[in-house]
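Running log. JK asked me to keep both predictions on one page so they can be read side by side. First protein, sequence followed by its tokens:
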Amino acid sequence: MTEAGCTGPECTFGGSYSESTAAAGECTQTRGYISNAEIIEMIESNDTSLAIDSWYDEDTDSNYVVYNETNWVAYMTDDVKTGRKARYQALNFAGTVDWAVTWPTLATTMAWPDGNCTTAKIISRPKIPGPYAMPTRWVA
């Protein structure tokens, strides 16, 4: 975000449609893309140097994190995913409610760009079952 403290729909972001000025994920090493595993690790680390602020927003049924004052992330906890899945199944929708199904955990079997992203507490988290789990999702 261009302005610290902004958390609503009127906030502006730096960069352009093709280049993000957001911080790169430690494991994804990609500006503007941070995996669920990295988000969870960041929140659970209680690292005060990151100035982490996280919350659930009922209106959007989403979780949010702002860290280092201007890095903004929207994501879904397992509880939010479960609630959305039930709501959409009740409407007879098919598909998945999770738009970022890759890299749900930090595990040695995943193809992290730097190959060094393994954290014991994250590895123990359950992996997403089915054809959407890494690395099988990308196999042709």
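And the second, directly underneath as requested:
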Amino acid sequence: MTKTQYGSYRDAFKAHFKLKDGTTYSEIEMTKKVISYNDLMALTKNIKDPADPLSMRLTYGLDTSNHFVLLLELMEETATGIVPVPGSLVRCTDFSSRGTPVPTSPAQQKTYSDAYINTVWYVDGANDRHLTNGGNTPDPTSIWFDWETEVMRELEANAPVEGSWLVLDCMSAQYDLSGFGYPDAYRHGMGLNIAKVEGGVLTDHLDDIDHSLPPADKDPANYKAMDLGNLHPPRWP
């Protein structure tokens, strides 16, 4: 997605996913998270078989101050099913801090995720409601990115990868739910793009299409953000 599209998806998230205090809605804060390329690659050390397809799962949460929490975990598709890569579950840090990801337990992940689903409201101006993890159309609590075709492609298109940071921010787009007998609804997704440290400051590498670039520089992932992710594992049957 281009910088303009990125902004529109961010605006859609802010318009439709909110905190509520009494009758007052407020924005979910601290949504922009990062992980460095080096820290991300360190999470792959316990992969069972490098030939196995790999995905990155991002789980949404809230902390006790109702600030947004993003948990990242690598998932390996083995002969017996999709399993977590041991030691790869971490809490991403805020864009402003550029810190080291914090190892997290499945129990803590559930606490954050439960707080998210129990606290955040979906707002459409007509039928505002709490998020739900039940029914025919449960609200997603996580999003998936394919490792090779999405995560690594984004990094490599914005080479050199050394010194790069993966930027993850909340987005939303409208999904067609007519097949379930429900009206269309916005879903929580994540945008994925690259930032680099320039002049001591972490700076997004995100721009609208520049038609003056030579053909070799027009890779769709170059200076762009990835899509909003997948609501289920990329190779889910």
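Observation for JK regarding the second prediction: DSSP finds four helices and 15 strands in the chain.
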